Structure formats: structure tokens, C-alpha cells
């Protein structure tokens, strides 16, 4: 099987997941008052590194909001696992559930099978971050094949500050497709 990630500069896919109240949400939709969106894909409740990363991400929420960047997270967990996980999290940003294998593949995420039933009971996405700009394009993308390689949050948010500063006129990077 070949692996293909969502290309920088391409539209973020139309993906529907669930909010905790079971209302479907379009992951690509940016809330009113914001002009960009950061979608953080995490492995699920079973991953202590994800819990730590999400809790640390809470410290950047206000800074991102000041930049006009909406912050959300999503996993392949079901509602019950998300509800259990929320007891371990200290976050105020929305966390969604129900990412399907097909949606993970559409995003170009690495997908793993659980090592045992004790770990979890379904295939899950390895970490990914997608920053969507005001045009619905993927401006930044970072995917990993394991929980140990994720962007350092201060550097990531500082980079978004730099990109969003109009005086820097910073384009979407990584768009070369083999021709000049």
C-alpha cells in the first residue's frame, strides 16, 4: 500500500465526525469569528502521550484564538471512550469522535491496529495536525507514524503567528509538484 498525505495547498477534505452530543460536525467548517482552523488528530483514549499533548495544547488555545485560529481535536474513538477520556483531560476546546478508517485514509494519516484488546478495540489514526487557512486550504500539515514524533507546540504556534502576519507575505510551502 502506498501512503499519500493531503497535499499542502489542497482543500481540506469534507469530513463529518461527531460532537459529544452526537450532533454531526463538518471538520472543515471554520466557526464564525475565526478565519483559520487547527485540526489535531490524536490516537485515542488509550494513548497517555495524546492525553499529555492535548492537555498541553490547552495552554495555546487563547494564543491561537487571538490569531483567529479555531482549535479542535478528533480521534477514531467512540462516544463512550471520548466520555471516559474527558475525565483525564483539562481542555476547553472541542474534541470530536468517530473518525473512520476511510476518513483517516483520505487525510493521509498513518493507521495502526491495536497491540491488544487492552489497548483499544479498533484501528486508530496516528497523530496528525492540519492547519486550514481562510480559503479552506491546508496551509500546514504534519503527520506521524507514532506518538513520539509531534510538532513542538510553541514552535508550531509561533510559526502560525509568523505566517498570519501580513507583512511576512508567507505562502503555503511544499506545493512543488514536479514542474516549474
Automatic annotation (TrEMBL):
Statement: the UniProt record of this protein carries the keyword Coiled coil: yes
Pfam short name (any one): AhpC-TSA
Keywords tagged on the record: Coiled coil
Domain Thioredoxin: 6-165
Keyword Coiled coil on entry: yes
Coiled-coil spans in chain: 50-77
Domain of life: Bacteria
Annotated PROSITE patterns: THIOREDOXIN_2 (PS51352)
UniProt name for this protein: Peroxiredoxin-like family protein
Organism this protein belongs to: Spartinivicinus poritis
Organism ancestry: Bacteria, Pseudomonadati, Pseudomonadota, Gammaproteobacteria, Oceanospirillales
Amino acid at each position: 500500500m502506498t501512503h499519500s498525505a493531503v497535499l499542502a495547498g489542497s482543500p481540506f477534505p469534507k469530513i463529518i465526525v461527531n460532537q459529544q452530543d452526537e450532533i454531526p460536525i463538518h471538520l472543515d467548517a471554520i466557526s464564525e469569528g475565526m478565519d483559520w482552523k487547527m485540526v489535531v488528530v490524536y490516537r485515542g483514549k488509550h494513548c497517555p502521550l495524546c492525553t499529555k499533548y492535548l492537555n498541553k495544547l490547552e495552554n495555546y488555545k487563547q494564543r491561537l484564538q487571538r490569531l483567529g485560529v479555531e482549535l479542535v481535536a478528533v480521534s477514531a474513538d467512540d462516544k463512550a471512550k471520548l466520555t471516559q477520556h474527558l475525565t483525564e483531560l483539562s481542555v476547553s476546546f472541542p474534541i470530536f469522535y468517530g473518525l473512520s478508517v476511510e476518513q483517516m485514509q483520505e487525510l493521509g494519516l498513518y493507521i495502526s491496529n491495536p497491540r491488544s484488546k487492552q489497548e483499544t478495540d479498533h484501528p486508530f489514526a496516528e497523530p496528525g495536525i492540519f492547519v486550514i487557512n481562510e480559503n479552506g486550504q491546508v496551509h500546514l500539515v504534519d503527520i506521524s507514524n507514532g506518538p513520539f514524533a509531534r510538532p513542538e507546540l510553541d514552535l508550531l504556534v509561533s510559526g502560525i503567528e509568523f505566517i498570519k502576519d501580513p507583512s511576512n507575505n508567507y505562502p503555503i510551502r511544499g506545493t512543488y509538484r514536479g514542474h516549474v
